[in-house]
Amino acid sequence: MSDPRAVDPPHSDDEAAWQDLVRRFHESSPGEGGPAGTPPSGDPAAEADSPGAASPGVRPSAGTGARPGPRDHVVDEPEDDFEPPEPPPLSSAEPALALAWTGVVVSLGLALVITVFVRSAPSLLGWTLAGVFLVSAGYLASRLPRERHDDDDGAQV
After folding, report:
1. So where does this one cross the membrane (predicted)?
2. How far apart are the C-alpha atoms of 139 and 128, rounded to whole Å?
3. Phi/psi of residue 58, each to 5°?
4. Which of 18, 38, 86, 131 has the fewest C-beta atoms under 10 angstroms from its C-beta?
5. Dihedral sign of CA atoms 22, 23, 27, 33 in order
6. Which residues, in sequence order, are CB contacts of 44 under 8 Å at separation 6+?
7. How far apart (Å, rounded) are the C-alpha atoms in residues 48 and 61?
């Protein structure tokens, strides 16, 4: 059986390439203008002509000598004094109408939960839920239109 610590020949090239990348990374510093090992010239015209130089509105890329890509583009946003309009109120419904709908839904929901899970509920609770439902449904029914127009299809905008 072969020694597991022996380096596999195809992986030795990978290891050498990795070590070269690490060495070049540590040799370059973030403030350098040119490729690794090349000090910046200090001349703005020379730096603008270099292949790694960024064009106006483009952020310099993190890698040295890399071309700028679409994610390097910086948009200059105009400074507006825009203030959004006041939002409308959350509920424009009448409070009595909202309370009636709440009474119908909650009384039916509680009656269902009590019927399924609580077998020995007091009868007063059942009568109270029935009364809340009837009063709420009666109020909603009283809000319905009283007459019907024959030429109206019922759609309202």
Report:
1. 96-118, 124-141
2. 17
3. -120, 130
4. 86
5. negative
6. none
7. 14
